[in-house]
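Input.
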Amino acid sequence: EIGFRVLVGGGMGRTPIIGEEINAFVPWQHIITYNEAILRVYNRYGRRDNLYKARIKILVKALGVAEFKRQVEEEWAFGKDGANTLTEAEVARVAAHFTTPAYETLPGEDAGYASQRAANTAFAAWARRNVLAHKVPGYAIVVLSLKNPATAPGDITAEQLDLVAEWADAYSFGEVRATHEQNLVLADVKQADLFALWEKARATGLATPTFGLLTDIICCPGGDFCALANAKSIPIANAIQARFDDLDYLYDIGDIELNISGCMNSCGHHHVGHIGILGVDKNGEEWYQVSLGGSQGNDTSIGKVIGRSFAAAEMPDVISKIIDVYRAQRQDGERFIDTVRRTGLDPFKLGVY
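Output.
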């Protein structure tokens, strides 16, 4: 039977909290009515007196997860089998709007793609990082990187967008997706077309082969554009990218998620970065707080601050010292986040301060 595990109370911002489970399994037919019950409880007891505390996570923390669950279950009893209970017919109606592309029947490994990787090291490096496996034989998922070190992370020009639209039509059934990692994705590219697509992306600055690496930074607009920011984010990201410009070195240190926010609103998701950077205001000056150990996904964790904040000019050196500690402490095949979790923060504090 298909169903859903339901968690509530998670969020970032000024108060980062990992959501807690209130129901291990809600049958698919009842997921809408169950969520309605959650919203009804929040609507009834949420903090309307304080805009900054008008959050489900604040209510869950105030009541406790057990009491919040009890109230949700009590509320759900009134609407569980009501008009919004899903039926197979309704699911089928909605699913009909999400049709499968007209995939061709192709071999699982395109011979031309394999030979092009063998003959061209730059293409092979891009394919290793920015091309992901697809469930349909002969196809691939392509990440178009918006992390060219010459631009702000996530930025793309109107001219580049026009080209991406053309590539989507030519190579990916007319579909392009934007990700929260601030990259673009062509989800259905034939392996036979990857080299041609790479050549075009490379010529226009959209083929930086660093997806998932240290310089694939998530970064909010920061003080350059945002009135809420305490500090600039983009110059910090660019300075770190400039420091770590050796691809071989980046490949050696492997998967690392570095996220930057210019204020506590956490638009750059710094709380869940393996390395998180938060801009803070100290007597009218811009400083940066560093946390380690955050992680997104099914193994979520909130990063912990390592100590006092740093001036902007110090940040590339700080990140270098953190990476030096990781390289000294890591075990064979161990990712950065796994090393941090195994050793704790103390070795990194010693290395940085």
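The domain at 111-203 is CATH 3.90.480.20 (Sulfite Reductase Hemoprotein; domain 2).
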